[in-house]
């Protein structure tokens, strides 16, 4: 396996930009976890909890479908509302989402390469750490992992119990 620094063809400025944006992202995530901005942390916590409960009770396909339907209901309603307002006021403002529709959202090959290089670094780190923990290089760290996984079995059983409770309350199917 080749060293990622020798295969990288990006300039130092672009790698500094990607590392600074990664630092900003990790700083933002740390602020959320430490509840330094309570409003944002509550929103992320409730959103995550809602997603977990939704996936625990419904299939992932259903959750994604309902989410997209909700977004479509909101955007269609807003578009119709704006069209009615424009017709009543006789203005020519145009499509309410025009700026978003005209924004370039395509990925450049360079951006994809930088993302792949960055993800390769993190994936290699995860593989090395997993190997170290699962093959018991350090007994204490592996025991910590085992304790964490054991606690997660209780979290999983709570979600399984909620699912069984919901399924148990459904009306019986008639033959």
From TrEMBL:
Q: Name one Pfam family in it.
A: Reticulon
- A GO cellular-component term linked to this record: neuron projection
Q: Where is the Reticulon domain?
A: 29-175
What's the source species for this entry? Answer: Champsocephalus gunnari
**So which domain of life are we looking at?**
Eukaryota
How is this protein positioned relative to the membrane?
A: Multi-pass membrane protein
Q: Where are the transmembrane segments?
A: 42-74, 149-168
Q: Where is this region: Disordered?
A: 1-20
**Main location group:** endoplasmic reticulum
Where, per UniProt, does this protein localize?
Endoplasmic reticulum membrane
Keywords, A to Z? Endoplasmic reticulum, Membrane, Transmembrane, Transmembrane helix
InterPro entries in the record: Reticulon (IPR003388), RTN1-4 (IPR046964)
- What name does UniProt use for this protein? Reticulon
* Swiss-Prot/TrEMBL GO biological process terms: brain development; endoplasmic reticulum tubular network formation; neuron differentiation
């Amino acid at each position: 396996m080749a060293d990622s620094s020798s295969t990288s063809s990006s300039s130092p400025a672009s790698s500094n930009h990607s590392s600074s944006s990664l630092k900003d992202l990790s700083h933002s995530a740390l602020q959320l976890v430490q509840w330094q901005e309570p409003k944002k942390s509550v929103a992320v916590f409730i959103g995550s909890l809602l997603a977990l409960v939704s996936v625990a009770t419904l299939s992932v396909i259903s959750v994604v479908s309902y989410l997209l339907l909700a977004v479509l209901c909101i955007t269609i309603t807003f578009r119709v509302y704006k069209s009615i307002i424009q017709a009543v006021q006789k203005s020519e403002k145009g499509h309410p989402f025009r700026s978003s529709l005209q924004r370039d959202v395509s990925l450049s090959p360079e951006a994809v390469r930088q993302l792949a290089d960055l993800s390769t670094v993190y994936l290699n780190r995860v593989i090395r750490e997993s190997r170290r923990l699962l093959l018991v290089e350090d007994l204490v760290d592996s025991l910590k992992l085992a304790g964490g996984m054991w606690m997660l079995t209780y979290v999983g059983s709570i979600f399984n119990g909620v699912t069984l409770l919901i399924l148990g309350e459904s009306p019986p199917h008639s033959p």
